[in-house]
Target: ATP synthase regulation protein NCA2-domain-containing protein
Amino acid sequence: MASDFVLSFTTPLLQGKDHFTSTTVPTDSPLSALLASLDKPHLTTKEIANAAEALQKHDEGLSALAQVDQQNELLKQAIVIKLTVALYADALEMQIQQSLEMENEAQWWADVERSKKNVAWYLLQTLPRRLADLFTTIVQHIHAQNPQIGSLRSLSVSSLVETTRASLGTIRPGVFLSTVFPQPLSVLSSAQVWRRNLLLPLELAQQECKYNRLKLEKLRDERATTLGELALLRGRKQKADELLQQLLLVLSPDSNFTSSTQSPVDLVQHLSTTILPSLSTSHHPSLQAQNLLRPSRLTQLWPKLLLIPPLTIYAIHLAYTTTPVIAAFLQDAKETTEAFIQGWLVEPLKDVLRTIRAGSGGIEGDGGVIVRPEGVRADMDSLERMAVSLAVDVLGYDPTDTARINLLREQVRVGDLTDIMRVYEEDMRSPVTSAIRGRLVRGILLQVQKAKVDIDQTLTGIDRLLKSQELTFAFVGVAPALGITYFVLGALRRALFLDDMDRAQRRYGGAARRGEAWADMRRIERTLIRQPKNGEAAEGSESALSPLSTGLVLLSLTRLRAYAKTYLPESSKAGSGESGKKAVKHGYPQLGGMRAAFLEDLSDLEDPSLGRHAKMRVVERMWRSWGKELGW
Model:
């Protein structure tokens, strides 16, 4: 992961040394072949040691012949410079890898520490190891208290119980506690506290996680300080032998190797064969000896592996016994789906189509919804005949006078019963007599028929209103089913395919990767604006950062560079913005588009010659340029 950063960081050192290889040299020279073999982006420590050994043998051969060639001397200088830069790159990469490993482990312990559930799960995962350590401690104590016992297997059960009981009585409770929880803890509990507080194991496990996290962060800061000191060496104008001496001083300050009296080749050989390999091989065992690494994969998985077989058997048994229930449920679901589609989608949509084809209709059309037009006309004709009959019998209308009869019919059709009502009013003056003669009853029945006709006309108006809104009611009836179908099909489409929102969330590595990049940017800014310590220059000054601040910034930049190399596109048209619809065009198409522009900003932050204030301006530019696009 650090190779891209190291290659970018150390390339300027080689670009400034081209004058050492500009002279034409014989191609058949051994040094030329050696120099050509070193023309690689990255050299391992073993390759550097082999090249230094070959160069040393060549020097010994020349010294024996007492021959000094200017061209060979230039080649030797070029080889030493390449080996020095390669050692510098290896030292940077080793420090970065070790720092990132410690940081990842510290983050794992922090994730466990912040949740009681995670702490309980961690305690369960490590319980067999703790019990094994406790058992080993008890056995060792029994052997120490009873040296005459060769093996516990030679004792009988009763003797073993008595010996164990007697030996355990001499063990202090703190021994058990330090065995089960080996890390230094702030809670020094006695046996009474252990019995009284049932949550004490969780608290001790949480403190263990906190101790490991703080210890790893401290070691990470030490590596970051070394990394910062190495990075600051790049900005100094110095020769190869001076850079080698500085490397030895930074990587091994307590070394007894006298670098001032050694040649550059000896320094390269010492660094590549002794210092760097020892630092690399001692890193992981040191963390393991201090119990700072997370538990092994098997330790983390054993509870799940223990539960998988019974859960699998139970699931198979449950599936076998509930097969009829599941089949009935699936059949019911199928029938419900078919009924829903047929009764709530297909039929209502057919009704909508029929309504559109038939039109609004009306009272004179295909028929009403509440009353039929024929019934309304029959009631109206009956009212007209009753009015004409009453007018002829009571009012003395001449049946042959068609003009007067038609006028009465027209008045009745429009609701004007003035003449009929006058007869009714006169009959009300002598209701008994009128009732006996039948005129009052005929008037009342005519009023009833008139009320029936009025009701029919009212219902006809309502019918016309319903007919005019028939299409609206049809769509209202099918709308809930269409809404349910829309949401169900949308959920299925989102589950099976990616929509625009999903594509926007998964752009540039997804929300998780962009969140990690945001955290690194925040740490860079926090490191730059943090109050200076130990004589570091005040905020806003152009002086260089301290080694610790430089190292922490470089760690974040390493992850950001790996993120950009992996997830940012090379095209100058960098996808869509927050809305997921418009393309973002950067003004650096000649540099490779979005990725190159982002890496260019990172290179500015990596430059050790820039001070705090200048790097803060670069950070502000990155927030302004990339915050919206990357969802920061």
User: Anything to note?
Assistant: The longest strand covers residues 573-576.
